Amino acid sequence: MSEATPYVLILYYSRSGATADMARQLAAGVESIPGIEARLRTVPAVSPTCEAVDPEIPEEGAVYADLDDLRHCSALALGSPTRFGNMAAPLKYFLDTTSSLWMNGALIDKPASAFTSTSSLHGGQESTLLTMLVPLLHHGMVYAGIPYSETELLNTQHGGTPYGASHVAGARSDRPVDERERVLCKAQGKRLAKLALAMHKMRLEEAP
Question: Is the full-model pTM beyond 0.85?
Fold first, then answer.
């Protein structure tokens, strides 16, 4: 990946694989837009014991994010399963380490979005997405959901919200992401990529 090429950072935490699958669908949407790339990153689990240490590189899937991934992105898609109507602790823990980016205004005027997966239809999808946007607003990011011009929002029987893509994984977390949910993930990625390119150009024009 060229450092000169703008990219959308797709930063997620996933336990059962559904959020990771959604992240890949968003990435496909991003990369369907010429001139921008997707960068998939995850975060390690957190442990209540001080002795637990994860390897520096995961055995499979995306590599762990660092602050530079966030600092240099042109847009951010934040993904998490729900934990009692909020994002999972590992993702919140990572965001809590971004004070230096906030102090320097590194994320101001960059578009951002969120996506989530829940076990049940009313398991907190919308509250999770809404609470995930709070730290992004503190960073000065510009939040972008999914508009109702995406007609799958009107027809879905499972996941899909105007606040961001969502998925219903089922009680055993084994229900795959369905076609309408995939379409909405890709649409969200496309929209984020288009906004990222437009705002990236704007920031370049405003730079001294």
Answer: yes
What does the block give as tokens for 206? 């405003």
C-alpha angle 26-120-183 in degrees, rounded to nearest 5: 25
Q: 113, 143 in Cβ contact below 8 A?
A: yes
The pLDDT, as a whole number, for residue 50 is 55
How far apart (Å, rounded) are the C-alpha atoms in residues 157 and 168?
10
How far apart, in whole angstroms, are the C-alpha atoms of residue 95 and residue 19?
18
The CATH number given to whatever domain includes residue 74 is 3.40.50.360
Given a contact cutoff of 8 angstroms between Cβ atoms, the answer to whether 85 and 127 are in contact is: yes
In the predicted model, is pLDDT for residue 30 greater than 70?
yes
Going by their DSSP bridges, the two strands 142-143 and 37-42 should be labelled as unpaired
Q: Which pLDDT does position 62 carry in this prediction?
A: 87
Q: Give the residue ranges of DSSP H helices in the chain.
A: 18-31, 67-71, 89-95, 99-104, 125-138, 152-155, 179-206
What is the pLDDT, as a whole number, of residue 15? 86
CA angle 32, 159, 147 (to 5 degrees): 55
Q: CA-to-CA distance for 171 and 186, rounded, in angstroms?
A: 25
Domain of residue 185, residue span: 5-46+53-204
pLDDT in tens, 147-166: 999 999 998 888 889 999 99
Percentage of residues in the chain with pLDDT exceeding 70? 94
Residue with tokens 């823990």: 93
| Number of structural domains in the chain | 1
Between 190 and 200, where is the model more confident? 190
